[in-house]
Design brief:
By secondary structure, the chain is an alpha/beta fold. The chain has eight helices and eight strands. The chain has a four-stranded parallel β-sheet, with helices on both faces. It has a two-stranded antiparallel sheet with strand order 3-4. Helix 2 links the parallel strand 1 and strand 2. Helix 5 packs across helix 6. The protein is globular, with a radius of gyration of 17 Å.
């Protein structure tokens, strides 16, 4: 089942029985990014917080293990799934091995998702922890930074345990979500998800 098909089948939440969403804490405006900021402002995620038909649980895997501020980290040698299988590592920008801490953080995020009976996760794309569509391949600060299709460690942990994950840039999917939590919302059918945008298709040579 694709993410959009799953979203279409979500129940209609109410104030008494809100939709349970797990969100990367930075997307909600909490200053837990590597540099002590919220990594900017993300209206698509902040919009979700406006409704009383959702219960948003916020968590930052990297802050959990490494605090804020901290070094930037990226996955080397694969994706988040590979990290969980012991085939790739998470390294800080100065080369420290943060693999163990990132796996521990992903396990905490999974624990929260199960405890809260999460129905959907909306996570920060690109992040070595929370990315769901695109992450860096190796150090993002290198002269020739490289992107790859794949999930970060925490997102991969959720996905392999059956949770649906979308990013703040999956605009078409978010339109469906808005229509579930707000009966008056009219879906904008011109919106597309991140894997459908021109940059993504050109960069990854998808025809």
């Amino acid at each position: 089942m694709t993410d959009r098909e799953y979203l279409k089948q979500l129940r209609i939440p109410t104030k008494d029985n809100p939709l349970r969403i797990l969100m990367s804490a930075c997307l909600s405006g909490i200053p837990c990014g590597w540099d002590g900021t919220a990594n900017g402002e993300y209206p698509t995620a902040l919009k979700i917080l406006q409704y009383d038909t959702v219960k948003v649980v916020k968590f930052c895997p990297e802050e959990f293990s490494y605090g804020t501020p901290r070094e930037m980290s990226d996955i080397h040698g694969g994706t988040g799934f590979d990290v969980l299988e012991g085939k790739a590592k998470v390294l800080s920008e100065s080369g420290k091995d943060w693999t163990e801490g990132m796996i521990r953080a992903s396990e905490k995020m999974l624990e929260i998702a199960k405890k809260e009976k999460i129905e959907l996760a909306v996570l920060m794309d690109i992040s070595a922890a929370c990315g769901s569509q695109v992450i860096y391949e190796g150090n993002r600060f290198s002269e020739n930074k490289v992107y790859q299709i794949g999930a970060g460690v925490a997102a991969a942990q959720l996905i392999r345990n059956g949770f649906k994950v979308i990013s703040q840039r999956d605009y078409a999917s978010l339109e469906i979500l808005y229509s579930k939590i707000d009966p008056t919302h009219q879906i904008d059918k011109t919106k597309v998800d991140h894997h459908e945008i021109e940059w993504y298709r050109e960069y990854f040579k998808i025809t």
